[in-house]
Amino acid sequence: MTDTPRPLMLPNMDLRETVGQAANQAAAAGVFYDYRLTLAQNTLRRHRAALELFAEYLGEKGLRPGHLHDDPSAWRGITWGLIDGYYKWLLLQGYSVGSANVNLSTIKTYARLAIKAGIIEPAESQLIETVRARSRRRDRQRIDEQRRKEDIPTRIGAKKAEPLLLTAAQAAELKDQPDSPQGRRDRLLMCLFLDHGLRVGEVAGLQTADIDLTGGILSVYRPKVDRRQIHRLSSDTLLAAERYLSLDKMSIRNPSPALLAGSTKNGLLQGSLSIRAIFNRVRFLGRQIGLPDLSPHDCRHTWATLASRAHTPLERLMDAGGWASYAMPLRYIESNEIANEGVSLDEN
């Protein structure tokens, strides 16, 4: 006698829920990966920098977050109050309103992903969305005015709408620093900005081993284009490097691998010079010659403008400045007084 086949039974609701929850957990674990998969390398680097800065803020609050850029579970316990506090902290640290806004946007994007992953409670998401950037021009101006009154920088980590173009005399003054350990360090710092047009992050990332005094060259890693370049040192930079390295850097006990050492309030060199410290130092040196709001980008802007005025070919300017396209160096090419000056239709 043939056995009668039993009817196929659908899984009960408990099993369905179990399988569904397992699927949710698997999807949640990959939500950051899926989002980052299509992003450009420059965007990923910007996101990582913003998230590392957020982690620094959380650390000051006594929290120890995990890997915020790739681990959704690291966002457990993040609230709208922490995100709001982070935005205000950026402004107090001296970051430009524009830079703080970009950072806030990044943090909120990853917070939404954490909400999607079920790490942050949905109820918290509505409050997180209430954390608003200061987008109106009037609001931004008022914030900067108040920060100036309190002697707080207004542009750490970003560029102004109208960068300052230094005169030759001002550039020379900035490089003419006292013959002291701190002064010799400062002279090399300003030479790297004014003679080589390096970005602040590139300067902060330089190692002592990157400079070859015998060959007169500097090896610099440029994160924005993800490659290492060689610069021929200017005569001022070479002289400043020789004196700083021989008289100061080599005499530091347990020196950092970083090229530029930090300094104490009494001028003693130690440790390394961070990005934030470089911003503060450049601003201080600018004040000494009557430029109250000088930034590293002003120095890079000056370098690029002067190189353009000296008829540096566009492709050479793009390469030396570490740009990936012609868009940025083209901004430094000034229009001729006669629009068609130099245009020729003669084939000979």
Structural features, described:
The chain is mainly α and 348 residues long. It folds into 2 domains: 116 residues, DNA polymerase, domain 1, CATH 1.10.150; 163 residues, Intergrase catalytic core (hpI Integrase, Chain A). It has 15 helices and 5 strands. The strands form 2 sheets. Strands 1-2-3 form a 3-stranded antiparallel sheet, with no helix packed on it. Strands 4-5 form a two-stranded antiparallel sheet. A hairpin with a 4-residue loop joins strand 1 and strand 2. Helix 4 packs antiparallel against helix 5, helix 5 runs antiparallel to helix 6 and helix 9 runs antiparallel to helix 11. The mean pLDDT is 82.
Q: Which terms summarize this structure?
A:
single chain, 348 residues, mainly alpha, DNA polymerase, domain 1, hpI Integrase, Chain A, 3-stranded antiparallel sheet, two-stranded antiparallel ribbon, 15 helices, 5 strands, globular
Strand content: 5-15%
Give the structural class.
mainly alpha
Order of helices and strands: HHHHHHHHHHEEEHEEHHHH
CATH C-level label of the largest domain: Mainly Alpha
Coarse morphology? globular
Helix proportion: 40-55%
* Rg from alpha-carbon coordinates: 26 Å
Query: Tally of extended strands?
Result: 5
State the assembly state of the protein chains: single chain
Q: Brief overview, please?
A:
The chain has 348 residues and is mainly α. 51% of the residues lie in helices and 5% in strands.
What's the topology here?
Layout: H1 13-29, H2 31-36, H3 41-60, H4 80-93, H5 97-116, H6 122-128, H7 137-149, H8 168-175, H9 181-194, H10 200-204, E1 211-212, E2 217-222, E3 227-232, H11 235-247, E4 262-263, E5 269-270, H12 275-288, H13 296-309, H14 314-321, H15 327-330
Helix pairs in contact: 3-5, 4-5, 4-6, 5-6, 9-11
